[in-house]
């Protein structure tokens, strides 16, 4: 992946470049200390990801992003700033950024965010290639009537996980496998969770002992992934309570008390997530929403 950094602080630019390149996350192909210069250079070199400061001397990060979008740039944006005003952070998210990271710069946080964004980019490109391949195949068919491509369970599931920020989680593959299992069998009601775990585990393991062990691992991976979704959505809700992703997924996938508790933990900068999630509710909501999106 290629990166471009816009920040009027020289130390921040050098720290970010060092984190990106020393972590093997990609290559920084340009930097700028102001928005005007940065916009022109980004439109020329077209990086995959732009790391941009919110407040700068000539123009702020949101103005720079608006100019880049108007210029046809389609890369990802990560905003990094000392600003803590929730209304301003919410406005930043409305411009289309993926994440807002507060300074001072934390190496582990930067690495984790960039890994997630890299995963989203790779998935976007894979889906684009699939669509191109399907479109090419369709060209060879008769043009008598238009052909509408059906949306697969895998396609719909990954788009939902992109919205919830969990495509890079280890349990995302288990969730996709479960959704495909339910769709293939046209299930009207959610089977017992243990039955689902064992059905998926049987694809990878042979003996009863191995299946039982893998079933427990699947449950743990899905629980961690659901907690990651809760955290991501709670962050969106804290910065912008009217965020469409928060409004859609949070009340459907989680109990109100779970969301309130996680938002409180994040607001108080609690180090770990103490909340619990209902895996059954999470998977039921996922299957219902996925079925609706596939129609």
From TrEMBL:
PROSITE patterns: RESPONSE_REGULATORY. This is Response regulator. Signal peptide: none annotated. The modification 4-aspartylphosphate is found at residue 53. Keywords: Phosphoprotein. SMART domains: REC (SM00448). One of its GO terms (biological process) is phosphorelay signal transduction system. Pfam families: Response_reg (PF00072), YcbB (PF08664). Residues 2-118 form the Response regulatory domain.
């Amino acid at each position: 992946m290629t990166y471009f950094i816009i920040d009027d602080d020289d130390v921040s630019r050098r720290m970010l470049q060092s984190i990106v390149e020393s972590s093997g996350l990609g290559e920084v192909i340009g930097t700028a200390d102001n928005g005007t210069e940065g916009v022109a250079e980004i439109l020329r070199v077209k990086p995959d990801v732009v790391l941009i400061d919110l407040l700068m001397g000539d123009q702020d990060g949101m103005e720079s992003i608006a100019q880049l979008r108007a210029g046809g740039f389609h890369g990802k944006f990560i905003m990094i700033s000392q600003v803590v005003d929730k209304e301003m952070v919410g406005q930043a998210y409305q411009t289309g950024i993926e994440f807002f990271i507060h300074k001072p710069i934390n190496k582990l946080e930067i690495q984790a965010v960039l890994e997630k964004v890299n995963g989203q980019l790779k998935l976007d490109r894979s889906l684009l290639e699939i669509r191109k391949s399907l479109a090419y195949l369709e060209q060879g068919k008769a043009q008598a009537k238009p052909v509408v491509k059906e949306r697969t369970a895998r396609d719909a599931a990954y788009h939902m996980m992109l919205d919830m920020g969990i495509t890079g989680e280890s349990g995302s593959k288990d969730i996709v496998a479960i959704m495909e299992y339910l769709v293939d069998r046209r299930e009207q009601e959610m089977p017992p969770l243990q039955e689902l775990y064992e059905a998926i585990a049987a694809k990878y393991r042979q003996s009863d002992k191995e299946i039982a062990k893998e079933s427990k691992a699947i449950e743990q991976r899905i629980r961690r992934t659901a907690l990651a979704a809760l955290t991501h959505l709670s962050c969106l809700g804290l910065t912008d309570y009217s965020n469409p992703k928060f409004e859609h997924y949070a009340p459907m996938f989680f109990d109100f008390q779970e969301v309130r508790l996680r938002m409180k933990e994040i607001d108080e900068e609690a180090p770990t997530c103490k909340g619990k999630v209902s895996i059954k509710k999470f998977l039921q909501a996922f299957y219902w929403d996925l079925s609706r999106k596939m129609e």
